[in-house]
Amino acid sequence: MTDSKSHLLRRLLIILDVCLTILAFAISAHIYLAFKGNDTAVLQNAHLLVIIVPAVALALNAMGAYDRFNPQRLASFAFLTAKAVSTALFITLLITFVLNLTYVSRGLISGFFLLLFVILVANRRFLIWWYFKKSVEKEANYLKVVVIGTGERAQRLTKEIKSRLEWGVSIVGYLDTDESKVGTEVLGAKVLGTVKQISSVLRNHVVEEVILALPRSMMNDVAMIATACEEEGVQFLIMSDLYDLNASRISLTNLGSIPVLRFEPVALDTGKLVVKRMFDLVLTLAAMPIIAPILAAIAVAIKLDDGGPVFFIQERVGFHKRRFPMIKFRTMCVDAEAKIKELEHLNEASGPIFKMKNDPRVTRVGHFLRKTSLDELPQLLNVLRGHMSLIGPRPMSLRDVDLFDRGIQRKRFSVRPGLTCIWQISGRSDLPFEKWLELDLQYIDNWSLWLDIKILALTIPAVLKGSGAV
């Protein structure tokens, strides 16, 4: 299968990139020794490979370096490699800061990452180009495919595999249930026979895959087709868009011995989620020495203001609708929750959320904390505990969730909630609820680690500006 080739090449490339990372460090160390002659520093910094190697591999995967292998996309690969190497460098420096590693050589490390970028891009350019030139561009190596069906779905499938797949694909021909179509042409390939003649077609042609593209109303012959393919040693595939479901990713898994087709509303790569979690933990832990004194000062200010509790803990709805206690600094009077019903008619926000610019429940210290978003800082504890991420849709209260009027609004529960997201850098509380939701769904559908980094970078000036905060 085309995908099996891609999976094999992906694994080989990951192993090769790991080896190239170690090679780049060895070359950088050799150059460093030639100029500095400090072998002790080289040996000490060599220990950083324990951090650097997985950081590079995970960052490349998170940036999509192993998603496509088209040799013509060198410029885009160079750009994503630069982002991945920058991210790996950032993670490495953060970890060295958290662990207080004083022996790190900035010259050696910066030179290494620069050399690594050059080596990775050159490897992808020449190795992949050579591989495609040798293996893919020769028509004899093309994947031989028979498509069952000639209608709209079959033609859409043909156009898709010819235009999007990197590997050479040759449509041997088509089979159809309608005998009158035998001998006619569909997108440059002939209809070789009827579905019942599949065994004869497979015996008389070089075929590696058979793809079923019939509508679900004509699926009675699936068992016969599968048996014929098994007898001829040919792979059998079925288009999985049988019910026109708008799923972001469709995959096959097993429940014991039973194969199950999985439709996922959000395409989330496990490897990329691991990188996102590492990013959250490293950044949060690195920020703690700076933030801890601020947290202490705020806690004292709240206590001196009215003597009430420092923290406001509220049950929120998080990932997969699991409830968790979200922690904030208390910015309202102690009985604020009890008073909300009295103020519902003064709600200035559209949709289920409650917002009020001059909310009488907000304390003096609370006004400042809300304006500067400092009341959100304790949520870093939620990030460490895994309830939240740094970037993601804001966690909703039970009251707000109960007031959702459309099912699609609950798609936000398919990802982990966060401290900030696109809405935070686009107007915050000034945005109407529908726009807020639209931006959350936009984030979910287009998520990437690079998008997280951009949102985080833009959040800082948005918070400092204070626009949209209430």
Tags for this entry?
470 residues, alpha/beta, Rossmann fold, 3 domains, six-stranded mixed β-sheet, 13 strands, 51% helix
Provide structural commentary.
Helix 6 links the parallel strand 1 (143-148) and strand 2. The chain has 15 helices and 13 strands. The protein has three domains: 2-136, no CATH class; 140-244, NAD(P)-binding Rossmann-like Domain (Rossmann fold), CATH 3.40.50; 270-465, no CATH class. The strands form four sheets. The protein has a six-stranded mixed β-sheet, sandwiched between helices. Strands 10-9-12 form a three-stranded antiparallel β-sheet. It has a two-stranded antiparallel ribbon with strand order 7-8. The protein has helices at 2-36, 39-46, 49-62, 74-98, 106-136, 152-164, 198-204, 222-232, 270-306, 336-343, 364-372, 379-385, 398-402, 433-445, 449-465, and strands at residues 143-148, 169-176, 185-186, 189-194, 209-212, 235-238, 249-255, 258-264, 311-317, 323-329, 389-391, 396-397, 418-420. Helix 3 crosses helix 9 (270-306) and helix 4 (74-98) packs antiparallel against helix 5 (106-136). It has 470 residues and is of the alpha/beta class.
